[in-house]
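Hi there,

I know you've been waiting on this one. I reran it after we fixed the sequence typo, so this is the corrected version. Both the input and the resulting structure follow.
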Amino acid sequence: MKRLLIILGLVFGVTIQAQVPQPAPKPDKPKKERPEKGQKKWDPAKAKERFKAAFDKRKKGRSDAKKRGHKVRDRKKGSAFGKLVRDDAKIKELKEAFAAAAKKDRKGFDRKAWKDATDDEKKALREKLAAGRKEWYEKMKAHREEIGKRIKEIREEFKNNRDKVIDGNDPGE
């Protein structure tokens, strides 16, 4: 009985081993060109050419997407309401005034005076900077409120009265 089991084990072992799939042979790949020792590993001209090709390919894809109506947004154009706000004369004037005031306030700090200052002088400079920051913060809040008021005015000015027109129509006409 022992012999029979050994023989059966050997037969099954050989048949199972014969049925195991072998990996497919790998295709022969052409060998890459390798630079000789002492030469540059990459060619700057080839790299520049590849970058230009990639840039052109990306540019073409972007223009195609715009033609298809894909949601590629141009940051410069924006929405129609944003254009109204950007092109408004009063808002431009407010922005320029705020920028000029902020620029004037920024010029107040002198680094050389800070280097040579004693502890008391540094404390006074810190207090001056804190006061300037508070003042700038108040100016910024006031500027933001003025811009908000102007935007509300623009919104009222260009309001769409579509609902009133629809409600005013007689259904029998």
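Quick highlight: The chain has a mean pLDDT of 77.

Best,
R. S.
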